[in-house]
């Protein structure tokens, strides 16, 4: 199986189904578009570094072409995963359409502390390198934007924690299965043993499992952070009208 065939089998079908189910959703589309742009800008240098260091490798004949060090199908994954997570969240957002009132800003501090600690741990693993390198790269890359989200709008995330959880858990689980198939059954990409811990969840490297959790979390938190300002904006328009 090629990387393109992987997309046709595992990522494009759920994207299409979720897109067809969006008829009842009323949320604006620009927040999802904004997150897709951020995903490309923030992930591209990191992904190129991983492939250049051969933390991820791709056997010959599995990819169409590369831009820099990264296959074009990998760039497509940036957008596809963001869209899948965003469309899934929008379905539940339409069902739970009442935006809860956020609690006080003090709720930000546990998230800041958690993701600050994760960032520090990631940097420490980077310095240790070796088998800690890939895990360290994930934590040091994902920790700062997750920390920033909680520093700016942690109370908004906390108010919508059920919506975040109902997005992160099933989307991550699905992508775990797809990734497990790509690595262990189809051999589309490989994770170099020398740069990973060797810890696995039913054959899936724990680093890969963590990657899909934090990336889906970034999307879900980003969307719910924008939800309250959008709701307030529309409320003001109705009052003016």
Task: Write up this protein.
- With 241 residues, the chain is mainly α.
- It contains 7 helices and 6 strands; from the N terminus they run ααβββααααβββα.
- The protein has helices spanning 3-20, 30-52, 72-95, 108-128, 133-159, 161-185, 206-240, and strands at residues 56-57, 66-67, 70-71, 190-191, 200-201, 204-205.
- The protein has a two-stranded antiparallel ribbon with strand order 1-4.
- Helix 1 packs parallel to helix 3 (72-95), helix 3 (72-95) packs antiparallel against helix 6 (161-185) and helix 4 (108-128) runs antiparallel to helix 5 (133-159).
- The radius of gyration is 19 Å and the shape is globular.
- It starts with a helix and ends with a helix.
- The mean pLDDT is 93.
